[in-house]
C-alpha cells in the first residue's frame, strides 16, 4: 500500500522528546463540575439546601498510562466522562486534581508544547461551511506553516483515502452529509501528523464502509507514522478491531482496563462460561450499577436476568 507523505509540518522541530517517556501518563486526575439544581427543587421548602450547587465528579481519580504507538480505547456510556478526560489531555480543560503528562510534558506548565504534540478530533469540529474541504484544509495547513503545493497534494490524498469522492473535494462543505463532514475533520487532524491523536467518537454517525475507511487510516497512521492514538467510542466492534487495550469508564472512574480478549475471558470466568463473552457483555458487566456476582447469576437464573433485575432496581432507587 502506498504511504502518505504526512511528515510535512515543522511544528515538532524544536521539541525534544525523550524516548524513555510514555506517550500519556494520567496520574490521579479528577475534574469536578458544579451544576445548578433543577428549577423545581428551588421551590422546595428546603430552599437553602436547594440553592447549593451539586458537584459532579465528571472524571474521578483516573490513572492511565499509554505507551508510544499504542491505540487505546476509552469506552463509556453517555455522560461517563470520556470527553472531559480527552479535553484535559488536549489542554482545553484544566484538571482539578492530579497531573497529565504528554511525552513527558505537563499539560498545564508546558501547554504550548503539548498543543504541538497532539491533535483532537471531535464531532463539534468547526469549519467554514461555505468553503470546500480543500479550502478548509488549506486554511488549516497555512496555520501550521505548510507550503501550499505540498499541502494541496497531501490533502487530496488524505481525503481520497478516507473515501471522499474527487468531485466533493472542491464543493462547499455545507452540501455534504454530517458523516462526510466528520471525515473532513478527521483529515484535518491527520494533516498535521500529530504524534498523539485524540479521537473523540470519530466514527459516530458514519456508515459501516466509512467506519472501516477511518479505522484503516488510523491503523496506518500508527504503523507508518508512529502515532499514538487515544480513541473514545461507544462502538464495541470498533474497540475490538482497533484498540490494543481499552479502559472502561463509568461515572468518571476507570472500572476495567486491558486487552479486549483478556477482558472477555475474565468476564466469562466470572460468569462461569467456557466460551469468551462479547465485548458488549464485557461493557455491560463493568458498567452495571452493581457488579454481578456468581451468586446473583444463580439466584436470577442467568446473567442477563440478573442484569435486568439489578438495573430495574437501580432505576427505582434513582
Ligand atoms: N461544562 C460542563 N459543566 C457542567 N457539567 C459538565 C460539563 N461538561 C460535562 N459535564 C458533566 O460531566 C459528566 C461527564 O460528561 P462527558 O461529556 O465527559 O461524558 P461523555 O462520556 O463524553 O458523554 P457522551 O458519550 O454523551 O459524549 C456529565 O454528567 C456531564 O453532564
**Biggest beta sheet summary:** 6 strands, mixed
Helix content: 40-55%
- CATH architecture descriptor text of the largest domain: 3-Layer(aba) Sandwich
Question: Gyration radius, to the nearest Å?
Answer: 22 Å
Protein name: ABC transporter domain-containing protein
Domain ABC transporter: 43-276
Keywords: ATP-binding, Nucleotide-binding, Transport
Pfam families: ABC_tran (PF00005)
Give structural notes.
The chain is an alpha/beta fold and 318 residues long. It folds into two domains: 61-250, Rossmann fold (3-Layer(aba) Sandwich), CATH 3.40.50; 270-317, no CATH class. It has 14 helices and ten strands. It has helices at 39-42, 47-51, 82-89, 111-117, 133-143, 148-161, 166-169, 178-191, 208-225, 236-242, 260-270, 279-287, 294-300, 303-317; strands at 24-35, 54-66, 71-75, 97-102, 105-106, 118-121, 196-200, 228-233, 245-250, 253-258. The strands form two sheets. The protein has a six-stranded mixed beta sheet, with helices on both faces. A four-stranded antiparallel beta sheet has the order 2-1-4-5. α9 (208-225) links the parallel β7 (196-200) and β8. The protein is globular and about 70 Å long. The relative contact order is 0.14. The chain binds adenosine-5'-triphosphate. The site of adenosine-5'-triphosphate has 12 residues, from β1, β2 and α3.
Amino acid at each position: 500500500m502506498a504511504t502518505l507523505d504526512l511528515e510535512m509540518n515543522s511544528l515538532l522541530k524544536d521539541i525534544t522528546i525523550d524516548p524513555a517517556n510514555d506517550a500519556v501518563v494520567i496520574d490521579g486526575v479528577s475534574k469536578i463540575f458544579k451544576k445548578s439544581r433543577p428549577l423545581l427543587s428551588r421551590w422546595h421548602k428546603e430552599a437553602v439546601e436547594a440553592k447549593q450547587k451539586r458537584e459532579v465528579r465528571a472524571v474521578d481519580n483516573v490513572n492511565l498510562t499509554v505507551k508510544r504507538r499504542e491505540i487505546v480505547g476509552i469506552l463509556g456510556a453517555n455522560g461517563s466522562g470520556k470527553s472531559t478526560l480527552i479535553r484535559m489531555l488536549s489542554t482545553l480543560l484544566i484538571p482539578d486534581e492530579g497531573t497529565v503528562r504528554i511525552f513527558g510534558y505537563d499539560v498545564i506548565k508546558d501547554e504550548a508544547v503539548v498543543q504541538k504534540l497532539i491533535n483532537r478530533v471531535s464531532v463539534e469540529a468547526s469549519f467554514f461551511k461555505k468553503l470546500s474541504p480543500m479550502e478548509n484544509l488549506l486554511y488549516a495547513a497555512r496555520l501550521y506553516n505548510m507550503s501550499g503545493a505540498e499541502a494541496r497534494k497531501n490533502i487530496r490524498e488524505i481525503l481520497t483515502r478516507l473515501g471522499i469522492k474527487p468531485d466533493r473535494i472542491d464543493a462547499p462543505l455545507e452540501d455534504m452529509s454530517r458523516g462526510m463532514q466528520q471525515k473532513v475533520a478527521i483529515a484535518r487532524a491527520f494533516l498535521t501528523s500529530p504524534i498523539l491523536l485524540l479521537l473523540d467518537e470519530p466514527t459516530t454517525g458514519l456508515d459501516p464502509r466509512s467506519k472501516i475507511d477511518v479505522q484503516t487510516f488510523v491503523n496506518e497512521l500508527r504503523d507508518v507514522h508512529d502515532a499514538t492514538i487515544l480513541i473514545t467510542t461507544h462502538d464495541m466492534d470498533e474497540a475490538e478491531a482497533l484498540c490494543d487495550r481499552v479502559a472502561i469508564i463509568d461515572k468518571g472512574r476507570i472500572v476495567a482496563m486491558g486487552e479486549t480478549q483478556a477482558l472477555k475471558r475474565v468476564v466469562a470466568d466470572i460468569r462461569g462460561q467456557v466460551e469468551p463473552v462479547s465485548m458488549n457483555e464485557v461493557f455491560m458487566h463493568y458498567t452495571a450499577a452493581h457488579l454481578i456476582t456468581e451468586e446473583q447469576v444463580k439466584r436470577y437464573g442467568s446473567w442477563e436476568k440478573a442484569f435486568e433485575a439489578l438495573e430495574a432496581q437501580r432505576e427505582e432507587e434513582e
